[in-house]
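Cross-posted from the bioinformatics board.
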Amino acid sequence: MSYLIGENMTGGYGAADILHGCNIIAEKGEIAVIVGPNGAGKSTAMKAIFGMLNIHTGSIILDGEDITSLSPQARVAKGMAFVPQTANVFPSMSVEENLEMGAFLRRDDISKTMDEVFDLFPILKDKRNQNAGELSGGQRQQVAVGRALMTQPKVLMLDEPTAGVSPIVMDELFDNIIEVAKTGITILMVEQNARQALNIADKGYVMVQGRNKFTDTGEVLLNNPEVRKSFLGG
Amino acid sequence: MEDLLNAFFLMSNFVFVPAIAYGSQLALGAVGVTLVYGILRFSNFAHGDIMAFGTMIVILFTWLFQSYGINLGPLPTALIALPFGILATAIFLLGSDKFVYKFYREKKAVPVTYLIASVGIMFVLNGIVRFIIGPDDQRFADGERFIIKAKAMKQYLGTAEGVSIKVSQGLTVVTAVIVVVALFWFLNKTRTGKSMRAFSDNEDLALLSGISPDKVVSVTWILVAILATIAGTLYGLDKSFKPFTYFMLLLPIFASAIVGGLGNPLGAIAGGFVIAFSEIMITYPYKKFVAYIVPGDWKPEGLVQLLATDYKFAVSFIILVLVLLFKPTGIFAGKSV
């Protein structure tokens, strides 16, 4: 059985459904990427998996356990971590305090995890006493990912982590994400930069209007002429 | 030379020392308002009356201790009564949160709803305080009156003006420093304090990090109880206790919090002193002071007072309006209103 399963998810924010029987599956230590046009329900699908949106049909299963009815907070305790697209740091708190807050639920020694985050993002170590609000966009994303990693999650969910950062920083962030996946953490990511994201993806989901349009490995999707034509600009 | 010294002593007695004491009292009040604004996200109009309620309990316990003959010697008995006042206020605030604000929190009400609810709490407190202790002036300061007496200093220095510092003024400044240092230590060094700052910064992300909103809210109310009761008691010791005066204090307190930058405790402290110094310096009659520093026959006939003391609240109002017009986020860049 797969590690994280969002099965037949149907639901939306209000009366109208945004997701229509959408399926998202990720294995342990795998990078799964959701791509698709604007308004396809990519972020909505991820929020549904994290419990920020009620689905009336379908279920979410984490490591064999049905977590469909749990609140987002309870899912954090189960080992899921979510990095929102915007407002994903505590701006008036230092980098170190941001990481500490990520580990708020933990009662054990967090210094080892913090060292691991600093190894992953060396720049943050230099800026540990600076307020997160004063950092550049890319560094702020690193703080946001670092904060999520502090809970020692089993699943890390990223909502457009490269939105608004420069191409160089984007490559760097993707490298970091591969590093994180290598440690055995399952990664589920929504991305606008479809080509680069599918490049690093073990599994890709192309969504259109709340439904799965194509599902395959990143490589196959990149080589699929129809996907290339419709979603990757040729 | 002696005239300059006299002029300086005069200013110290009637402007600097009282303004520092009043500023400390306003600062403590404004920090309470700013905490509620930063964490619970509304302007708490009941703050002045929370101060009155806390002070009333302190006064009642002070009278009780006085009747038993318990006192602190040179220091006011109110200091022993303070913990009881804080406890009662904390219970009241936690109760008001449970029965009023929690309802709106669960409905995710807009800030203005909380504000109106706080006006309701204000009227309730207004009534409770007047019902229990009455609308009149109450004096409850005992112990020594002065740390430095004007008369003794006059003889010692041989100047026309003495230097005087009241016990209540010294106590206010010392207590305010201790309270503020303790508060900043709590907010910056403890796990609970940091979680409160995180909640104030980004509520959604705080929830995602597993920070419990109920705990943050309760701790905030307890801090407000501590700050408001101490501020009210110090003000009462320094001047006197009258419920209506405490209600009126709401304006300079809000002015302080906004001038400093709402949601920023450091700004609230700076704002408190800005308001206190402006209020006192603008309403002080400088006649005697000018007489000391100009040659004898230039002595002014009028009071040399910019504004009568009756208008002191207008000073807070003008500063408030100016800040909102030109720098709405306040001196220390808090949240814009």
